[in-house]
Amino acid sequence: MSDCIFCKIAEGEIPSNKVYEDERILCFHDLEPQAPVHVLIIPKKHIESMDDVGVEDQDLLGYIMIKVKDIAKELGLENGYRLVNNCGEDGFQTVKHIHFHLLGKRKLTWPPG
Ligand code: AMP
Ligand code: ZN
């Protein structure tokens, strides 16, 4: 999508601090980290939110899920981490391109705000 900031990051039009990239997904550091390690994992395909995931995306979403542990290991999150998806207005989703926050290197509290 032409006006999507994460599509632009995926296409290299906007720079990002990349952690991992392959043909289907990208992981980069969040601009406003909420933990010592805070990265975002996105599919390169534009999907607006969890509400917009279709049957045709199950392989892609499954692929992200199996990559999480590899990225976490690469970032030294051997003591655990949190994977977060914000969806829609009440979920406080600010960027309308599906993404998963991976946070770690501090004791995270529950419930989240
Ligand atoms: P969410 O509120 O779940 O939609 O999360 C969007 C996240 O994207 C926020 O944590 C922002 O700090 C982050 N963000 C926005 N623009 C950029 C950018 N250009 N590079 C890295 N992170 C970004
Ligand atoms: Zn997009």
Please summarize what this structure is.
With 113 residues, the chain is of the alpha+beta class. It has two helices and five strands, in the order H-E-E-E-H-E-E. The longest helix is centred in the middle third of the chain and has 17 residues, at 58-74.
Describe this structure in words.
With 113 residues, this protein is α+β, with helices and mostly antiparallel strands. 20% of the residues lie in helices and 22% in strands. It contains 2 helices and 5 strands, in the order αβββαββ. The protein has helices spanning 5-10, 58-74; strands spanning 18-21, 25-29, 37-43, 81-84, 100-104. It has a 5-stranded antiparallel β-sheet, covered by helices on one side. The longest helix is centred in the middle third of the chain and has 17 residues, at 58-74. The radius of gyration is 14 Å and the shape is globular. The termini are far apart. The model has no long low-confidence stretch (mean pLDDT 97). Adenosine monophosphate binds at residues 5, 14, 16, 30-32, 40, 86, 92-95.
Can you tell me the overall shape? globular
Measure the end-to-end span.
31 Å
Order of helices and strands: HEEEHEE
Question: Mind summarizing the main beta sheet?
Answer: 5 strands, antiparallel
The percent range for strand residues is 15-25%
Q: What average pLDDT do the residues reach?
A: 97
Briefly note the structural class of the backbone.
alpha+beta
Q: Quick one: how many beta strands? A: 5
What small molecules does this complex bind? adenosine monophosphate, zinc ion
Q: Count of helical segments?
A: 2
